[in-house]
Queue: 2 jobs
Job 1
Amino acid sequence: MTELTLSKAIGTGLRRALAEDDRVVLLGEDIGALGGVFRVTDGLQREFGHERVMDTPLAESGIIGMAVGLAFRGFRPVVEIQFDGFIYPGFDQIVAQVAKLHYRTAGAVRMPLTIRVPFGGGIGAVEHHSESPEAYFAHTAGLRVVACSSPQDAHSMIRQAIACDDPVLFFEPKRRYWSKGEVDEEYAFPLGSARVVTPGTDVTLLAYGPLVPTALDAAVAASDEGISIEVVDLRSLSPLDWGTIQASVAKTGRVVITHEASEFGGLGAELVSGITDRCFFSLEAPPQRVTGFDVPYPPARLEEHFLPDLDRILDAVDRVLGRANSLSGSTHAGWSA
Amino acid sequence: MSTTVSAESDMTSLEFEPVQLLDPSGARVADSHYDPLIADITDARLAALYEDLVIIRRIDTEATALQRQGELGLWPPLLGQEAAQVGSARALRADDFVFTSYRENGVAYCRGVRLPDLVRTWRGTAASGWNPYDVGMATPAVIIGAQTLHATGYALGCTKDGVDSVAVAYFGDGATSQGDVNEAMVFAASFHAPVVFFCQNNQWAISEPVGLQAVRPIADRAPGFGIPSVRVDGNDVLAVMAVTREALDRARSGGGPTFIEAVTYRMGPHTTSDDPSRYVDPVQREEWAGRDPLARVEAHLNLTPEEAAGIAARADEVAREFRAACTSLPDPEPLSVFDHVYAEPHSGVERQRRRYAAYLRGFES
Amino acid sequence: MKDFALPDLGEGLTESEIVEWHVAVGDRVALNQPLADVETAKAIVQLPSPFEGVIGALYAEPGATVRVGAPIVGFESAAEPVADRAPADRTPSRSVERNPVLVGYGAPVDTGARPQRKRRVDHPVFVPARGAALSTPPVRKLAHDLGVDLSELHGSGEGGAVTREDVVAAGSGTASGDRRIPVRGVRKATAAAMVSSAFTAPHVTEFLTVDVTRSTELVSRLRDAGQRASLLAVVAKALCLAVRRNPTLNSRWEETEIVEFDAVHLGIAVATPRGLLVPVIRDAHTLALAELTDAIAALAATARAGETTPAALTGGTISISNVGVFGVDAGTPILNPGEAAILATGAVRRLPWEFEGGIALRDVMTLSLSFDHRLVDGEQAARFLTDIGRVLVDPATVLALV
């Protein structure tokens, strides 16, 4: 066990993958000499050489398309997209090719790509550097989508993602890159599993990626008011771990879901639908979502009024517990509507 | 020597010297093709250009300091690229339209963007700083290369409107790898659009040297698309102005697009948080320091101490204004996060605004 | 004194070494004038002064390592450049320490402070919508299962919502103040057994009141001599002996056959916190008095502790119920299902009784015998009962029975 930052935990996982499988290659912008703009790949080109760790020309479509070609040739490419907002030029290659080649060729061609994407906000940045595009990819059949939240999970999950024979969109919470935690390199768990981070009895709080620490903070603050929140880190967005989610909601009967991505059509909508279907007769209140608003990600000085925080989450907790809160006024439809 | 590359040229890239009218020592270089294009630049006018260079460098330095002092979230320095930006921007007409990346603060200054507006994006109080139509310049594009398609489309619009305005797209060497930039050249050639592709090859895309993006001079590509191309010494304000004027004239007279590669060097970091010591060869940088765009003009002009002091004082004044503008920018109102998402009312956004307003009212101020 | 803190100078940098100062205390510095050289990972960076003013203090020596965010220079009289309006409000995010990034202010550093909610001043009240009865899915399902119409209920929940309690009350007509106890476990099983027994076997009860003084004195004598004995054990012994002469009371009705048991597996009714249990002493007819005494005591203790095994609750052939411990004289006990008879013993009372021709205070006890009239006729029952009574009146008569 060693204490590592989340970025170092991923870097260590990449090092293990490169060492254990010589078909693993890394591609991305500035991942070589610079070690990546967040230093995740620091030292890897020095250790494994230019053939295994490659700086690419500045073209996301090109990078993904090249990775498809390498996969055809039996390599196991790990692609870094420098920032979430830059993934869109590559969207066509991802959705039309990476996601569909296994299906198109009846399993003859495999796309064991891992596409690493630093995502989420809270870093005071300019446009296009704080996006949460995971829903677009979760909506696309053929892709697996995961999001880590802690150094241990980041390490275990990146190795699992690389080893997985399906393409994996690996979302990394960039504002948490500096958070530290204990990492046991040999600890593993199924890539598609969620985790109950803190057990509780009154409300289930579902989160992933950068908001897991926020959810944990909310649970601590709520405990000061005698409310017991069970925080579940989804970890896998496609597929969702319904066993864990269902058990938690059946136990508490109340659920709040939080993600940075905008509300409309976000992962929260899929979760609410599934929960309503599976847990209807356990629900004491309608499931609530606490998300980014349906606006483009705002400038740095406004982002605190976009991102879910402890207070907005606990406001939703109040709502599912039937306590007085800000949104139970005339705009709220009530339970029967 | 005229070194415009046409599709028929058989010049190899190794002999492909950039256009230069003022060498690093400040001496004039004669060029029979381009000298007429800057015949009107008297010493007085050159001094004005020099003042632009000084002021823009001063703004850049001030902005870097402001970022170090936590007043700006980000600043992408243009240190070393002042001549490429001033020389080209000062060639434009008011009715031309400019589409840039995020590093063209020098172009913005020349287009008339006011200092408070220049700083808004980088301080993070707004998504952008100005109304594009006020200054004939779009807000900076952070997505690499996207602006080249926008410029080409705008140029096509000018053709449809029957005006001789020109669209200019500014982008870097890294951008030329993006699909958008190559598609823009296809479209520009196909539609014979009045667009100037102005590429500042500052040798770096964050840590990636230009050799990773291009194995031949970037200017060599455009003729492959059917677009006339010229390579210019980006640190020579006169040469930049000359080639830009030629490109603008070609576009205005129905001659279609031109590609300009301004060869320069990014003397500073990619942005204020980058650490170039990890990847830049200090010897290479030193060489480029010897080709400084300001030094050669200063040497050529041979200003009197009073003139030099006057320019320095005006630059300091601009810097003061810039700092004041930056530090006095008010933080945006919380509910403004919902403004301008749509042009027409949208029920979903309105509902979220109402609910968030109700939520905020519940707290102690 | 206005302090200037070491700013972020590059990604990942959390501290830096002061290489050289370019100013000294007392110097007047201009805005952006280089104050010091500091070392990052590989490069030396100059720090431009954020203020115009006079240096009041230098907080670090050359060669010292300073943490990002720690003050390094103090300005005595720092004049900030004149702005055309007052300095902007600083948002909370600006006063937070941040990890630098390439593209913005950076991510806030975790302070480790305990998370807290912001204080609220306004708590709007929940206003329910008009329309169908307010309720939750689990309550609606309950109402459906109980056949309760939600719309006819007055909801006692917040905003008039119909609660689980409202539905349950509506389904049962319970007034407030009544207690509702779920029927579960032992009570449920016992009730079922009683119903089955009471409505299957025709019950008749016969009574006999006897003077048991000689038995109570015998029990005392035995105990004084160090032997274990109890009146209930004496009753049990008497019952076992009486069964030998009256086997029909130790039988079972099986519709087409009657089974007369050879052994006596004696059930002893025990009141436990969970309800009435009747654990069985197997082969009671083979046990000596002391053994019977022990078996009864053990069985009762085990039952009260809730540790009686299911096996111990089955296989009885006849039962005794000592209602006397509750202070009553007699009863009409209900047969344990499958048995022909159950004997209830009442409280031992000191009563004036006929004794040797006169009246004396004697220990008197009533025996109540319920029997299944399909298996036992009145005369058999009477003989059985009087046999038991005779033993209790004069324990020495056992000699005539064995």
Job 2
Amino acid sequence: MKNIILIFTGLLLVFSISCTDDFNEINEQPDALSVSDVSAKFFVTTLQQKLYRDNVFELWYGRILHSDMFSGHISGGHSAYAWAGDFGWNYWNALTDNGSWGPYANYNSTLTSYMNLVGDGGTLENEQYYALGLVMKSLYYHAFTDQFGAIPFSQASDPNVELPIYDDQIDIYKGIIADLDQAILIIGSNETTGVGVELLGNNDVIFNGNMQNWKKLANSLKLRIALRAHGSPGEDFAARVAEESITSGVLADTDALLAGYAEETNIWGGSTSYGDVWHTWPTARWKMGEPLINILKGDNDPRLAIIANPSEGGTVSINLTPRDGESVALVDKHIAFLKSTLDDAGLVLDTDYTWTEANDELTITMQESTHYVGLPSRMNGKLQRYFNTSLFSDPAENLTQKVNDGKPVLPSIVMLAGDTHFMIAEAILKGLVTGDAASYYQSGLRKAMQHWETITGVSLDESNMTALTGTVDEKLEKVATQRWIANYTNSIEAWSIVRDTGYPSSAVITSSDDEIISYAGELNGAYPNRLRYGTGVYNSNADNVGSAVGRQGPDVMSTRLWFAKE
Amino acid sequence: MMKLKKLFTLLFFVLSTLTYAQSVSGIINDDQGLPLPGATVVNATTSNGVVSDFDGKFSIEASSNDVLTISFIGYNAEEITISNPNDILTVQLATNLLDEVVVTSLGISRQKKSLGYAISVLDGENVNTVKDNNLANSLSGKVAGLQISQSGSLGSASRITIRGNNSINGNSQALIVVDGMPINASLPINSEGNQVNSGSNDSGGQPSFEPSIAGGGIADINPDDVESISVLKGPSAAALYGSRAGNGVILITTKKGSRSNRIGVTVKSNLYVDNPMFLPDFQNQYGQGSFGAAYSDRTNDWGQFSWGGALDGSQNPYYNGTNKAYSAESNNVENFFRSAIRSITSVSIDKGSDAGSVRFSYTNNSSESIIENSDLNSHNFNLRAVTNLSDKLTVDAKATYFTQDVKNRASTTGAQGLLTHLYNIPRNVNINDLRTYQVENPASPDEFAVIRYADGFVGNPFWMAYNDETRVRRNRFLGFTKINYAFTDWLSAFVRIGADITSVRDNKIYKPGHHNRRLGELEIGESSFGELNSEFLVTAKRDITNKLNLVANVGGNLSKRTSEGFLVRGTDFKVPTKFFLNNIRTINSTEESPLAIKKVNSLYGSINLAYDNFLYLDVSTRNDWSSTLSEDNRSYMYNSASLSTLLNQFIDPSQKLFNLIKVRASVAQVGNDTDPYQINQTFSVPGNGYLGLTTLVSPIVKLNADLKSEIVTSSEFGLELSMLNNRLTLDVSVYDMTTEDLIFDIPVPAATGFQFSRENIGKVSNKGLEIALGASLIKMNDFSWDTSLFYSKNENTVEELSDGLDSFVYNNSTDNNIAVKATKGGSIGDIYGKVFTGEVDANGFPIGSAAPTELLGNAQPDWLGGWSNTIRYKDLSMSFSIDARIGGQVYSQTSADLDRNGVSERSLKYRETGITVEGINTGTGAQNSVGITGQEYWTAMSNISENYIYDQDNIRLRELSIGYSIPNTDKLGIQSASIQLVGRNLFFFSKSAEDIDPESMLGTSLGVQGMSHMAMPTLRSLGLNLTLNF
């Protein structure tokens, strides 16, 4: 009896002293780091990788199915492709929400948390890291606004604003220039971020911690923005900014690249290469776009064989039985388009390929692995069965390289030295600065070739490219076209070049005949000039997005952005 | 095995205390003269006891002058002194419904009439006659206010909510308590802190493409061990359980050894055959192809659509390269499924006496899935012993060991599950042809191609059944020891220590060649959960005056919950024929969740006052200290009070009409804390980094050191009536529950460096009405019919979210056509989708809204109803239950997929004729005149989600059993034997939704309620039960 009472009393005692002593300790997560455990450099890599080498949604849904296609570099809709040729052109909110708006809108929190850490009063405060962050911020906002137009910018970094306003593109451009100026000022003549734990080193996967290169990148971006803004309504800064940036020094010799990770494994949460998409989803394999192939061919550009594979060729049979609702005339029209595509690619009937129609069957024989044929963009799905996969060029293995195969994976382009040369040429042609445009054009070509030489190890000859001659407008066309080629795999920029300059005109793919080139839903035949806002913003910040739409035009893909050519 | 032998030896030793005497037999009747089966007869002299059989008959050893005590719940006990052992006794017990005793919080048994809140009690028979592999599913349709949502696959969990959803983002499911000990229902947590295997997370994003709903929780409880189930609804009833009981409690009491003068041995064998209850309606007129023509080019143009030509029997190219007659294979989906055999066998041995009781049971469950190569096997060992060490000291101990092996539960449902590729099979493809699924002699591992009926992201269902392997092995130990000591006749106390330890090993293999994972993938995970509860309770019963009685309880509990685990994922097998970790070329990620501990200390007390047996007042208070909250907020207290009064003695003292009139009212509060690690901000280290560099990631959620517990406040009023000699009973409750300070991640400006901030915000209310009506329609000697009806209605309202936030999106469907939200002024689970805008584009295609922004319905039903019946005629008995779910909507992504692919019967419309959609043509600005084909029409419509929102309305015959109690089995040495024919999910009286069972959701988490996508077909079970008592 006494024992029992003792037990109960003991138990009560245990409760009354209520052992909550270890509560704080057990609620500390053992597999996570606190602020005292970390250094700023560990945050730089992700900041860079997330903008240029994000997960599969950003690459596939965002770039491949939007800007890569819109720029005319690549195309889908051939017979072995899972979707019709207008997939991606025809607005589907899942693609934009998850691939474009989502990753870009969310990047702001990655960026801002970095800026808060290294900025004034931050736990890992460091001026140089902050300047690097300002350049990343500018690269980010530039790519973001060029895709969507008005976006939250001026209030997007203000923790006290729950629902930021959407700034007009001109104001965003001005803001970016101010940020870049601040970064350039902070970097000054600094070479590194500091010593000891402050030393950035190889955690900077773009410049290995070289702050002078960051300064040059800042200047190059200033120049790019000045050129893009030039001549747009209300622009009054292009000449000054272009002059300043060239004087201060752009990236003339060094490419700003973000190395691909040949051992990357987590395409959903980590990073993704083109090869990941290519090898993981065989039916999502795209073809080289007709505009790019035909321009490279026309110029006899040595990069053609570097970036594209010749068509597989061989003999293909295509069933010509009209399907329900289709007339014989339509079948004829469709195969006529196929024939004109082969002809436009410079193939000669009966020499390079044969064409036999008999018993409702079309037989085409093409020499194997010989000819480069680009696939037309934005085709109506009804054409899919005629555009046999064997007839069109795939991208070269250097792009589609499978990861974990022991071979290098193509880096992502931040800014090519070649492009800065072209941009100076463009600035001269536009009269913003003075100088010899032709020589910058030529040196740009050499630099642009060198980018592929460093990757493939072969020597490319730029001399057979057309010299910079003709009217100013013709010269601008040539410069724009070369910039567009140089920015292959950097398609947000390539798409911007097309929208800004209208060149190359073959990349401005519009439709007046839905039976061939799809009207692509809401575009109604127009060229895509922007992407639609993420559907979520109509829930979270409806008033501000509404006001932006009121100023900018309807939230559809055909609405022209401020910088776009009329 | 040795251990088992020892156990048996021990058991028989304990049980073998038999004495011999003369036998007295008799029959026990109720006050209507009807036989009472199951009444207990105890010879008080020898302490032996028996239970009356189906006919109320019993036979017990007794000598002259022995005293028999005859008792039965709900009846007054009788004592009979034996004068002549050879007499045949007839004993009549008088009804005493008012003394019905029910099990309440903390396992305290109380008279039901004295309770001031609603409680529903079910007999074990209700859940173990027609067995489901998950005990929860057997509760469906039997308790007012209880809602069960199933996810369908073999061995998976179900969602259990009582009186609606209380929390927006936290847990809304009921707490499961077995024999007084809360059991663990956690699922593995991934590195982002989300529960994996629940179908999705509750914090936004898309539901998984292949939801694999883990089992656990109540699914591990063996129905044959269940004595009774009490459902404590709402905080009032559950206040004493604290934080976890805010969503109600399901209180399971398991069987103990019954008092008997002999060893009771019961053998039960249940054999069921499961088949799909129904399948979608498929068309059988058009075959594989597109735009009205069969595909003709196998290498370049071979899709999965059934938009081809009319199935005319002509020879056409076939997916496997041969030619085949182009004719309908009407049963190709049906033929994929097999009749699955489920066999559940249990043996129990028990014995009881004054000295205590022992019960041992073993149950084996061997169940096949209707999909080949998928099954479930489990063994359940249960030992329960109660020993009265002295007349004051009792030890009650239980140990349950459960082991389960589920093969290939996963990968069947969802957007990329097996059923997607089965249901979309072209109508002219013979399913059995797909049994040839692997190309022979692949040139290289990369070429391990699967033979499929179409190109693209299409799988071969047979290949998936045999090559997407999952294996989940669970081991679980549940046990407790309770020491009860009666200090005096008015003061007693107990200490109880209970443990629940689960370990789960999860293996998942996608073999090389998978249509979406060519190189193959492997995932191995192991997680374990522990829950340890130590508690004490001191109970004092005092009659303060003759009329005023007091019961006071003071108790405390130390709860410690732990979880840990790891998960490794890899891809690309070095040698593509064997599948283990070392054979993996690339390890994608290793996730380790180190031991996480959550402790909650609690002290509580309650006082029950009864005045003159008609007025009852209960008050309770509880204080919790939770380790998951900061020091300042760690301690929180909440109280409850209830009042009930019996008015019958004033209104109808002679019981002419009313036997009971009770009105009751209660108010209560319960707090709801959070998970570990939710208050201190940290950085996580991603497994891989980039380019081999160490990278750190800032968290996206800003944690809040000042986080408080959520508080649920409820009030409830009730009326209970019993009339016409207790032949008719009525129980009505109305309640109002409000949850405030919801723990919720609100979106914040990115400028904060975060995407979300965790706050205590908002307010959710649930208001409802519950009615339960019971009647003994017929009560004659050989014939009786008992019936009960219930109705429950719940209205959920999101009263407040934070400033600037009007809605919270749980999930978008995988086709992005649906968003499930909680919207201010709306309710949790509002379904938003796309509607036809009334416009068509230049080509004549209907245009849907750009984003899922139109309110189309809500995932929660308006009301639930049930009707249960038991009819007995002599040795025959029949029972059936019908239940109804009315109101509420569900999005059938299944139907949208079937229409898009042209396999549904619906898609026959407009095939031949095409259609000109009515609306304004945006190309011309005038009324549309451009026609489109049927294929184009259905492709467009399948993306406009309003077309696939169905009402959940359905009424079904949930359970039916016909039993026969075999008479005169004594000669065979069998005390009693019965045989039952049982059926489950027999048919629908009505159902609104096409293609799907509206109660089958994508998973158990809140965010996927209201979405159905390629769920496993609901199973119709037919079976035979054989029960033998020796």
